Amino acid sequence: MNTNPVFSLYIPTRIVFGCGEIKRLATEKLPGKKALIVISSGTSMKKYGYLDKVIELLKENETESVVFNKILPNPTKKHVMEAAALCKDEKCDFIVGLGGGSSIDSAKAIAVMACNPGDYWDYIPAGTGKGRPVSKALPVVAIPTTAGTGTEADPWSVITNEDTKEKIGFGSELTYPALSIIDPELMLSIPPHLTAYQGFDAFFHAAEGFIANCSTPISDLYALEAIRLLYKYLPVAVADGRNIKARAKVAWASTLAGLVESTSSCTSEHSMEHAMSAYYPQLPHGAGLIAISEAYFETFRNDCMKRYMKMAEVMTQLKSNRPSDFIDALVRMQKECKVHELKLSDWGIKMEDFPKMVQNARDTMGALFTLDPRPLTDEEVLNIYQKSFK
Amino acid sequence: MNTNPVFSLYIPTRIVFGCGEIKRLATEKLPGKKALIVISSGTSMKKYGYLDKVIELLKENETESVVFNKILPNPTKKHVMEAAALCKDEKCDFIVGLGGGSSIDSAKAIAVMACNPGDYWDYIPAGTGKGRPVSKALPVVAIPTTAGTGTEADPWSVITNEDTKEKIGFGSELTYPALSIIDPELMLSIPPHLTAYQGFDAFFHAAEGFIANCSTPISDLYALEAIRLLYKYLPVAVADGRNIKARAKVAWASTLAGLVESTSSCTSEHSMEHAMSAYYPQLPHGAGLIAISEAYFETFRNDCMKRYMKMAEVMTQLKSNRPSDFIDALVRMQKECKVHELKLSDWGIKMEDFPKMVQNARDTMGALFTLDPRPLTDEEVLNIYQKSFK
């Protein structure tokens, strides 16, 4: 905290946390009487019974529901528009996002398009978006079944425009969830590699938010606790997915990292990853971040030395006297989570893709580059990509 | 954090923090067009120009205002009722609480009584109160000029019923301030002894909230940071009131301790103090807490040993291996702030008052005794009072 920090804190989401707390959906005051439940195109929400449970709990709470089940891992504008049309046809008065970040982020975007005319990209204030003002949105209830995005505790929604290959985060005070229920029991069945990808997404929300030049005393508090918890418990959750204590700690860390996104910001690491997964939608967001993280954080090693040492200290619980202690701890954590050897080429990325990704990262999420500890040149950005390539 | 913590987080207050940020009153979206400004009966709000400044900034924001200037250090139900009548007569649509906890707490109670019939005590769910439900309240804007109560970040309002000698805290989600502007520059003129009393009030919000049996992972985070900051900076602010860095750290710690009150709770130390200042309204709340604190925390020394050691560690930044390290650090901090030798008798309190205070504490704020680390007997409560008597 500087001598004269100026900051604000306003997070109007009601966060309910705890194992088994999904049951609260039957008793909490809900923001309407008919919900559009948004889930992914995958099978897990049905297979594990989460969808049926949510429908049933809503019914106990005298709330009808309709399901939209087409959301992709990197969710698209097309599906946002399609679901918003369904929402209007069915006269739903709120949206339930159930699943990973893709479903909850989509729920927020659908909530916007259920109340505003035109195309979703008309409202995006970056890239080829038109930046029209959003004056209202339906309320959203977020029920995460993964621990990573933090979207349950922030206003952001990341949607890909398939036509223009833009993957852009957008949100406003209107898109904070009205209610978020985080029940770690819904996360017990996530396989180890996804647990690691998602957990590192949360880790980078916290670490980027901690080195961002817009960090604040409150975001620092959330960030360091998220970093501490993830370093300690993510390897445990990866090794033993049934360990409910580790799952709960990782889930809480992910929500804390969402609070960081609400009070500080991601930095350009996220812009760089979005560019990769905009071109290669099969690349999981967390995997993309992990792949570039060592080179990314190495770049700023001498720009915020005290903050690197502070992160190292909460991770290792040892006094740190050099910023590279943080990089060492990060690499150690990646090795323990068995994600240190990720190859971008396994997802089809080619060395020659990187120049256009530099441009895409600047064009679509350029604002985050202004929040880095210092401005990066295009050459440095290219370097980070190239050093990360395997 | 236990293996299975269940907790929630919902703080709908927009908190704006920073030196000079009072100016934001001219630009923030306000919850109405005509404000009742509630200030104390003292002279400081006028002497330091804060009242004029607030009236002028509201005017810049196209908002009229009316002033109620009778609030006492231990605010009374009578003034709440009188101000609520003025508010209705003047058709004010929100309340600005400007000053210490007494003015902001009163603003919340006035906000309730401006929208609900009958007497304020009809709504108090403890003591001789009737516990009727409160269904609405006017919005409140909180502008603290002291650092201690945390009322800017919690829903609580402590009002004294002069007739029944009851001093009771009450609030609900309706009484969270809509907007709180915390500007440490407004705190530069607080004299050393009041700086210490108020700062220790914040300290005990955090320390009680940390040992309360309803503490949560989020309240722990806020509490430990408040405790760390106050131990380090309160003695600095007491010694040199013009030190703006120390003032800012203490102000932020006080707001964090308010967040603790919103996510955990005070314990019976507060009930015991309220009983004293209900009978002796000249006793400053913080002074009463300081006077009983050593005996109070000594009583639970072996009941939450790890938590005492954790508090000692964030205070001293040294490894702790015995819970009494916390008591030692607390006493040291009181000595540094020149408040270790407070005499309750200086405010007229007599040894023979204590039995009726035990009863009063149970009758009016009995609920907080259920949140102590373990249940106290009446004999133990009496002992704490008696040991604290000088």
Secondary structure: elements and pairs:
Two copies of one chain form a homodimer.
Chain A: E1 7-17, E2 34-40, H1 44-47, H2 50-60, E3 64-71, H3 77-89, E4 94-99, H4 101-113, E5 140-144, E6 157-161, E7 166-170, E8 179-182, H5 192-211, H6 217-239, H7 244-263, H8 268-279, H9 285-299, H10 305-316, H11 324-336, H12 354-365, H13 378-388
Parallel strand pairs in A: 1-8, 2-3, 2-4, 4-5, 5-8
Antiparallel strand pairs in A: 6-7
Offer a few descriptive terms:
homodimer; 390 residues; alpha/beta; Rossmann fold; Dehydroquinate synthase-like, alpha domain; 2 domains; six-stranded parallel sheet; two-stranded antiparallel ribbon; 8 strands; 46% helix; globular; ADH_Fe_C (chains A, B); Alcohol_dehydrogenase_Fe (chains A, B); ADH_Fe/GldA (chains A, B); oxidoreductase (chains A, B); Iron-containing alcohol dehydrogenase (chains A, B)
Description:
2 copies of one chain form a homodimer. Chain A has 390 residues and is α/β, with parallel strands linked by helices. The first copy, chain A, has 2 domains: 173 residues, Rossmann fold (3-Layer(aba) Sandwich); 199 residues, Dehydroquinate synthase-like - alpha domain (Dehydroquinate synthase-like, alpha domain). Chain A is 46% helix and 13% strand. Chain A has 13 helices and 8 strands. In chain A, the strands form 2 sheets. A 6-stranded parallel beta sheet of chain A has the order 1-8-5-4-2-3, sandwiched between helices. In chain A, strand 4, helix 4 and strand 5 form a beta-alpha-beta unit. Chain A is globular. The model of chain A has no long low-confidence stretch (mean pLDDT 96). At the A-B interface, strand 1, helix 6 and helix 7 of A face strand 1, helix 6 and helix 7 of B. Strand 1 of chain A pairs antiparallel with strand 1 of chain B, so a sheet runs across the interface.
